[in-house]
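May I ask for a single protein's sequence together with how it folds?
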Amino acid sequence: MAGRTLVPTLNDRGRQLYSMVRLALGMRSFTRTGQVGDGREAAARDYVLANATAGDPESVLVTIDRFARTRSMLVNVGDEKGLILDAAVRRAQPKLLLELGTYCGYSAVRSGRLLPGGARLVSVEFSAANAEVARAIIAHAGLADRVSVVVGTIGDGGKTAQQLTAEHGFAPGSVDFVFLDHAKEAYLADLNTMMDNGWLHPGTIVVADNVKVPGVPDYLAYMRQEQGRTWRTVEHSTHVEYQSILKDLVLESEYLGKQVP
C-alpha cells in the first residue's frame, strides 16, 4: 500500500547517505534546472517502468518510495507527508486540482488516484526534463486521462496562466484544490496571483509542503496573520521526506474569500 514505510537495509542506508550528500551538493543545480544533476530523476522513471505494475497507481507509489529510500533520495512529498495530502484530497473531492511543482510526478499520482469521476489535475513544472519524466510515470500509473503536466511557472508574466485558461478551462472560481511544492520563494506570490486571477472560491483548499524545511517564512507568516479572516489553516507537524530526524511542517488552508475592507 502507498502508506507503507519501507525499512532500508545496511547497504541501502549507505547508498542513501551517499545520495543525500550528493543531493546537498547538487542543490545549486536543482535550484537552476529542477534536477540534482546526477541523473536520479531519469533513473527513478526507469526504475518505475521496470518494477511497478502498469495501470496501478499504488504500485507506482510504493516503487518510487522504495527507490527514494534505498537508491537515490527524491525531493517529492514522500510517503509520510503524502498521507496528509491524501486526507486533504479525500475531504475536498476536488473537480479541478492545480499542483505547482511536478518534479517526477509522485504527488500527481498520489492526488490523481483519489480524484472523483470527471475530475482533473493540472500540474505545472518549470523543468521540461522533469515534465517528461513525470508524464512517463503518470502514464504508467494509468492516470494520463485525468492528469496533465504543463511546462511553465505561474510567475512568468501571465504566459502559463493564459495557457491554463485557454487549454485547461481555468476560470473564476474553478480551482477547488491547490498543492504547493515548487520554488519556496514563489509560494506566496503565486498564491496571490491565483487570488488576483479569481481562480479560487470560498472552500478552496491549499496544501503547502516544506513550510519548515527548507522553509517558507513569508508564506507561514501570511497564513498565520490571515487565520480566521481570509484563510483557515491547520498546521501539520511531520518529517522531511524519507527520514525521521528532520521535522517539517505542512499547511492545509481553506480559503474563506476576500475580505471587504
